[in-house]
Amino acid sequence: MNSCSYSIVLCGQKQRYRLTRKKVKNINLRIHRDGSIHVSAPSSVPLWQIEDFLYRKAMWICQALEKQKLLEAAFPQQCGYLFGKPVPIPPEEKPDEWLRRMAEEILPSAYEQAWALFQNDGFSKPQLRLQKMRSRWGSCIPAKGQITLNSVLIGTPVDCQIAVAAHELAHMMVPNHSPAFYSLLDERLPDYRDSHQKLKSAQSFLVHLW
Ligand SMILES: [Zn+2]
Predict the structure, then answer these.
(1) What is the whole-number distance in angstroms between the Cα of residue 76 and the centre of ligand 1?
(2) Residue 28 Cα to ligand 1 middle (Å)
(3) So what's the pLDDT on residue 207?
(4) What is the CA(112)–ligand 1 centre distance, in A?
(5) What is the pTM of this model?
């Protein structure tokens, strides 16, 4: 794994980005809380292809940087998201520790509310794990009786937290995303589709915040 800094002009502004070569399948792009741009790519992908990728993502990158700047101006101290609203993180606490602590405080109760919809379905309550994840809101391993919720969910409204927990609990009965799976969810949680829509719009922002 090696890492180098490059510059590129995006939306008329010169930006620096850090490129790390590692064993990944695709080109990955992340913007950190401090506004730095990080790209990872397999060593086989030439630089021009990476820059082409960045040009295609230019609008998104500039918007994300702009959001970050506004956020920093509004909250000079580190800020996190709780139930859809920004809140300051105590200066003595590292953002990751704050995220873990708040997730432990908040998500078990959303999980309980979702569990109430499935508790008579004949399977025992899966063990809940909380973890910061980049690409998904939750996961379920039915064979292990284990459900993982993304700690970043604390930033979304409570109905979204319940919807993700219910989605994973429904996988205990239907492992795939077949029509049967969604009709089970619709039956248990009639607002599921609304919450899902909100989650979609929150995803890129919240996941990249951490
Ligand atoms: Zn699923």
Answers:
(1) 37
(2) 23
(3) 60
(4) 19
(5) 0.67
pLDDT score for 77:
66
pLDDT tier at 57 (50, 70, 90 boundaries)?
A: very high
**Spatial contact of 140 and 133, defined as CB atoms under 8 Å apart:** no
Catalogue all structural domains in the chain, each as residue range(s) with its CATH number: 2-74 (no CATH), 81-209 (3.30.2010.10)
For residue 171, the surrounding DSSP H or E stretch is none
133 Cα–ligand 1 center, Å = 15
- Amino acid identity of residue 128, one-letter, is L
